[in-house]
Amino acid sequence: MTGTGLFVVGLVIAALLAVAGVVTVAGRRGPAPTDVRGRFDRRASRTDRQRVQALADTTVEETETPEPAVVEAAEPSDPLLERDEVSATEYSITRRKFLNRSLGSLWGIFLGQFALAGLAFMWPRLGTGFGSPIAVGNFADLKAQIEQPDGTAIPLFVAAAQTWLVPFSQAEQLGSSFEGLPVVASDGSDIGLMALWQKCVHLGCRVPSCVPSQGFECPCHGSKYNLHGEYEAGPAPRNMDRFGVSIDGAGELVVLTGDVFETPRATSKTSRYPLGPFCV
């Protein structure tokens, strides 16, 4: 069967269903309503007319209207004058006043903390600790720990001063990158002590010592320095920084951690490197 035939059959079926629906609805309707009107009762009609006439006569009769009473109007009172006075104790603190005081207190605390933090940041460190002179021990004892019988040296780390203590000959200071700088302390002998800052001048990593190579080798990016902190290899831009040092009256070595000296890469080295295998 073609599409047109199917369409025609569908229309016929739809028409039949519509007719069936109409017949079903019509068949369910009940019988036509009957006439509900009764017989006219003349006596009841006359009684109703008499009742309506009696009500009309009663309404028409004149009645005496009492004169309205004259009431003297009282003067309006002022609510502001009649209000009850409330004491400060009874009134207490309103919600708005409480919120205003709370916000003011918080703002004051914040400003106070900010001022104290700024003052602490700008205030110079006059006490002990890093940034001030630090006595690290007896000069002779420190020197004995660092120098080895075979002529090598084991740098001594002092955590309080963030310092590597290394031996340095005063004769080698002439003509070096450290000439004229107070970075070597001595008790009168040729060999003194120098304090190297532990951080790498490349990106600030802590540089450990390498005893086999007799130098310092940064594990972060491979910068290498000899025993005196002079640049040897890697991305570091200059020598390791060093602190000023001195010996006090009691023979104590004092590291001036507030005095930092930067020196460029040395053209002539004061220490051979490497003397052994690298650590990094």
Notes on the protein architecture:
There is one protein chain. This protein is of the alpha+beta class and 280 residues long. It has a domain at 133-261: 3-layer Sandwich (Rieske Iron-sulfur Protein). The chain is 33% helix and 19% strand. It contains 7 helices and 11 strands. It has helices at 3-28, 42-60, 79-82, 88-91, 95-122, 139-146, 170-173, and strands at residues 133-138, 156-158, 163-169, 184-185, 191-197, 209-210, 215-217, 224-226, 231-233, 242-247, 252-261. It is elongated and about 155 Å long.
Average pLDDT value?
84
Low-confidence stretches: none
Q: How helix-rich are the residues, as a percent range? A: 25-40%
- The best one-word shape is elongated
CATH superfamily of the domain at 133-261: Rieske [2Fe-2S] iron-sulphur domain
Q: Note the total helix count.
A: 7
Q: What separation lies between the terminal Cα atoms?
A: 91 Å
Q: Give a short account of the largest sheet.
A: 7 strands, antiparallel
One letter per element, helices H and strands E, the order comes to HHHHHEHEEHEEEEEEEE
Radius of gyration from the CA trace? Answer: 56 Å
Strand % is 15-25%
Q: Class by helix and strand content?
A: alpha+beta
CATH uppermost class of the domain at 133-261: Mainly Beta
The number of E-state strands comes to 11
CATH architecture type of the domain at 133-261: 3-layer Sandwich
CATH topology of the domain at 133-261: Rieske Iron-sulfur Protein
